[in-house]
Write a structure and sequence with these properties.
The complex is a heterodimer of chains A (259) and B (651).
Chain A lengths: L3 E5 L2 E3 L6 E3 L1 H17 L2 E8 L6 H5 L5 E6 L6 H12 L3 E5 L11 H9 L3 E12 L2 E7 L5 E7 L2 E5 L11 H6 L1 E5 L7 H4 L21 H9 L15 H14 L5
Parallel strand pairs in A: 1-4, 1-6, 4-5, 5-11, 6-10, 7-10
Antiparallel strand pairs in A: 2-3, 7-8, 8-9
Chain B lengths: L5 H24 L9 H20 L3 H26 L5 H26 L9 H20 L17 H24 L4 H12 L20 H4 L21 H8 L6 H5 L1 H4 L6 H13 L1 E2 L17 E2 L12 H5 L6 H5 L6 H16 L6 H11 L22 H4 L4 E4 L7 H16 L4 E3 L9 H5 L3 H15 L6 E4 L2 H10 L12 E4 H10 L13 E4 L12 H9 L23 H4 L7 H10 L5 E4 L2 H8 L7 E4 H8 L6
Parallel strand pairs in B: 3-4, 3-5, 5-6, 7-8, 8-9
Antiparallel strand pairs in B: 1-2
Helix pairs in contact in B: 1-6, 2-7, 3-4, 3-5, 4-5, 5-6, 6-7, 7-9, 18-27, 22-23
Classes of the chains: A alpha/beta (259), B mainly alpha (651).
Chain lengths: 259, 651
């Protein structure tokens, strides 16, 4: 049976014009899904929770998707229960999302809440899915400064796609307009917490001036590219799993994450 | 034994075969899409168009125009008379003498064709075309001899006497050869096809406005309703732009068939000269392969630079970019129209290229290099570089410009264009504002309400984005009252003047759209600007394509320079033959590699005039020419030169 990949897409917002657009990271999630479709011969469903009449969905479809699925929600509804409910029954193997939405609350919590609700592992900030064999995916996590970490994750899982992943392909007008956008009835649950919020525009804050300490071009290059010399933390590669786990446990206690 | 029936029978056979070929050829064109053309009016106007519009272009090469007049004129006359004298056997000495004269005229013309083919320039095609002068000689010579008895010079039946078997055989062979080329070849795809298709192309041209000295340069809009009003039964079959040869309009296909492979386009094409993989002549020949089916093995002209001939295959139902023409070829074009301007057959290369780009962008999403990013920016921020739309007027923070949303009306609307975001172009804008203020012009700008004109989006094939921008711009324009729009950007000028009219708005009715050089020239002629004479050394002028070839404005910029006392050191390629700077048609965005840069070649031409200053009328040209490595002459917009010479009143 082919793998079932679901890419979640939201309505993006252009940082300069504030206009609605295809969200950067969500576009990359669709791109990754489309590439998996070719490499793994998987099925791809592109899913949006919101209004099926949303014109931005056409820009995702323009990447070459014959159809998009929409869970019809009203403005005040919470997306997570609807998505969770759908994914539970959809038999998905991989759920791809952006790290955080460009509009709305933009909390970055959707993948976490979904993973929790589904009881699946969450793989944050991935750059690529290298291979999938026997139900285990080899994934590259994106770390700062172009570094990558390879991890193996058993299916199914939720992954958020980092800006380091392959850029979304160009969206074409014709296929976008022709795509079938199918609205489905969904579990609606009003986001009560949000309803109580007051929203106001952010005030621009004064920017801290960047003081360039480097004296030479070589210094500047190093500052821009070199791995930061972390003062805390350590890398444990050769130790046994038990020792590694103990160290993590110690750290969590130190940081008062667990008591 | 009498052979009197032989030659009439041969002529009749050749003519019947020609008619069959013609029907077949017409059916190939009819595979294209319908287009509104008045067939009768076109046919009636055709001879005049041939004698004026077409011959005006041929006339640029005096040798060839005389040769063609003799050969072509002689042939048409001979063909008519041959039918009368030899096929219908009209017994008239006058007709026979006329035929002798016309075939002699044709023979003389053919000798000059022959002479030219002895050492042909690289731009003209060889192959079957090398055979053509001999075929012309065979046709003209053999019918001359065949007509001698009818004219009474040789005794009746002399040629068919049994004693002259050898002469008869040779003469008959020449007649078959001549008619094979001239009648049969004309409709079955030989070199003479250009006469048949060319004549009909003149009659049914897609841009009828071009004839009689008119100008028609605006691209035709794409019908977006095909996908907007979605109908699953038909929409999947209709594509945006041109994917397959049959997606062209039928008269575009006919136009491709009219090509005589003279290669004048090739000699003018800046992309070809730069070694980018484009040759307009080969492109048109590939379109012919597309409409008729087959491959390019028989093509005998210059290839696309860097690409071997012989690998292209196509057919009316095959996607062009899958094996016939590579996308880089289409993206190399700067849309400068040098090829169109130079084409004696009035073929529209740029229309075809943009039609195919539309398919690549709007259906495939394959605009190369920065294309996708620029289009995304245009859609999301109304300017190609993704700047905040609210920062559009930042350049004029210190200019105290009247804004239309405040003043509601002005005599002149100054269309600022996207130069507002570019620091180099802002210097041009400031200079122009200085001149406007000095001449006390009642003007206003749209401020942040102005959007990108859509030029780049359209040339990159995204007509949806163009139409969106154009409609929104027109809506803004319709809110205000003004009698003129003046812009420093020839690309915006072209869109506003020639392309917005197709979008069903009356916002520009009765509004004069002017380039700033035209407007400034009016001011100078009216004595509204006091200017000092210029003494900064030799000056040359670079014609922007979108001002010159697209809009016919060659004089105003030159007159302005002359008003400063400048004697322009003209470049070899100037006026309607000006060479592109390389900045049009989104070429800097798609950036197809070549052996040289077009801007460098243009600067070499500037250098050869010994100029110390290049006057330009376009911010895009300024950017491209200033991109050439120093040392090189200074590059200045005419507005900047004028502003520098302005005598300001001191209060």
């Amino acid at each position: 049976m082919p793998l079932n990949v679901v890419s979640l897409v939201s309505v993006g917002r252009h940082p300069q014009s504030g206009r609605q657009r295809r969200a950067e990271q969500d576009g990359r999630a669709v791109e990754l899904g489309m590439n998996l479709k070719v490499v793994q011969n998987s099925q791809l469903t592109v899913l949006h929770a919101g209004a099926s009449s949303e014109p931005v969905l056409r820009t995702y479809a323009g990447m070459g998707l014959p159809e998009l699925k929409v869970l019809e929600l009203a403005e005040q509804d919470d997306a997570v229960p609807a998505l969770g409910d759908y994914l539970q029954s959809a038999n998905a193997d991989i759920v791809l999302t952006g790290v955080r939405a460009e509009s709305g609350e933009s909390s970055g919590m959707v993948p976490y809440l979904l993973a929790e609700q589904l009881g699946w592992p969450l793989v944050p900030r991935i750059a690529d899915i290298v291979s999938i064999d026997d139900g285990v995916a080899e994934i590259l996590l994106a770390l700062p400064r172009g570094q990558r970490r390879a991890v193996s994750v058993p299916l199914p899982f939720v992954a958020s796609v980092d800006n380091a992943a392959a850029e979304a392909r160009q969206t074409a007008y014709g296929p976008g307009m022709r795509a079938r956008i199918e609205g489905n009835k969904a579990v609606t649950e009003v986001d009560e917490v949000r309803a109580g919020w007051q929203e106001s525009d952010a005030k621009p804050r004064p920017k801290r001036l960047k003081v360039v300490k480097a004296k030479t071009a070589a210094d500047r290059f190093k500052a821009a590219t070199a791995k930061p010399q972390g003062k805390a933390g350590k890398v444990m590669k050769s130790e046994s799993a038990k020792e590694q786990a103990e160290e993590i446990f110690k750290l969590l206690l130190e940081e008062k994450v667990i008591k | 034994m009498s052979f009197e029936w032989l030659h009439p029978a041969l002529i009749a056979t050749a003519l019947v075969l020609a008619v069959i070929g013609a029907v077949r050829r017409v059916s190939l064109w009819r595979a294209g899409q319908p287009d509104q053309v008045n067939l009768m009016a076109g046919l009636m106007a055709m001879p005049k168009r041939y004698l004026h519009d077409l011959h005006d272009v041929v006339e640029r090469d005096k040798y060839m125009s005389k040769t063609h007049a003799a050969t072509g004129g002689g042939f048409v006359l001979s063909a008519v008379l041959i039918i009368l004298v030899h096929l219908f056997d009209v017994d008239s000495q006058i007709l026979a003498w006329a035929l002798l004269a016309s075939s002699a005229l044709m023979f003389v013309g053919a000798l000059f064709v022959f002479k030219r083919r002895l050492n042909p320039p690289s731009r003209i095609s060889k192959g079957p075309w090398m055979r053509l002068p001999k075929s012309l000689l065979a046709f003209a010579g053999s019918f001359f001899i065949l007509t001698l008895p009818a004219a009474g010079i040789l005794p009746e039946g002399f040629l068919l006497q049994t004693g002259n078997v050898l002469l008869t055989v040779v003469l008959t062979a020449l007649i078959i050869w001549g008619m094979g080329e001239m009648f049969f070849g004309m409709s079955w795809g030989g070199p003479m096809k250009h006469a048949f298709a060319g004549a009909l192309h003149l009659a049914f041209h897609r841009r009828q406005e071009r004839f009689g000295g008119g100008r028609s340069t605006g691209l035709k809009p794409v019908d977006l309703s095909v996908v907007e009003e979605f109908n699953p039964a038909t929409s999947d079959k209709q594509v945006l732009g041109v994917a397959k040869p049959k997606d062209f309009k039928w008269n575009q296909l006919l136009g491709f068939d009219a090509c005589v492979q003279c290669g004048r386009c090739e000699a003018m094409c800046p992309a070809f000269a730069a070694g980018q993989p484009l040759n307009p002549k080969k492109l048109i020949q590939d379109m012919v392969i597309g409409l008729a089916g087959g491959d390019d093995a028989k093509y005998a002209g210059s290839p696309y630079p860097g690409k071997e001939v012989g690998n292209a295959k196509g057919g009316p139902e095959l996607i062009i970019t899958d094996g016939l023409v590579s996308p880089e070829t289409l993206w190399s074009c700067t849309t400068c129209r040098a090829c169109v301007e130079e084409c004696p057959m009035m073929i529209e290369h740029v229309d075809a290229i943009v039609d195919m780009r539309r398919f690549l962008t709007m259906e495939k999403g394959e605009t190369p290099n920065k294309g996708a990013e620029i289009l995304d920016n245009i859609i999301a921020t109304d300017n190609p570089n993704g700047y905040s739309p609210a920062s559009r007027t930042n350049w004029a923070a210190d200019q105290n410009l009247p804004v239309m949303s405040d003043v509601k009306q002005a005599e002149v609307l100054f269309w600022v264009s996207d130069g507002a975001f570019d620091m180099r172009s802002q210097r041009i804008l400031r200079s122009f504002v200085k001149l406007l203020k000095a001449a006390n012009v009642d003007f206003a700008v749209l401020g942040d309400e102005e959007l990108d004109s859509g030029d780049v989006a359209r040339r990159l094939g995204d007509d949806a984005a163009f139409q969106n921008l154009a409609k929104r711009n027109l809506e803004t324009l319709s809110k205000y009252k003004f009698s003129k729009i003046v812009t420093t950007d020839p690309h915006a000028y072209h869109c506003l003047r020639n392309e917005y009219q197709d979008l069903g708005s009356n916002a520009l009715d009765g509004v004069e759209v002017l380039h700033h050089t035209t407007f400034l020239n009016e001011l100078v002629q009216a004595g509204k600007l006091r200017l000092d004479s210029f003494n900064g050394g030799t000056v040359t002028y670079h014609d922007p394509c979108y001002l010159g070839r697209y809009n016919g404005e060659y004089e105003a910029p030159r007159e302005l320079l002359r008003s400063l006392g400048i004697e322009i050191a003209e470049m070899e390629r100037s006026g309607f033959r000006s060479r592109c700077c390389g900045g049009g048609g989104g070429a800097p965005i798609t950036d197809i590699p070549g052996e040289r840069r077009i801007a460098d070649m243009r600067m070499e031409e500037v250098n050869s005039t010994g100029a110390e200053l290049v006057a330009v009328g376009c911010q895009q040209c300024t950017a491209m020419l200033e991109g050439v490595a120093e040392p090189r002459p200074e590059v200045k917009d005419i507005a900047e030169i004028l502003a520098g010479q302005l005598i300001e009143e001191v209060h």
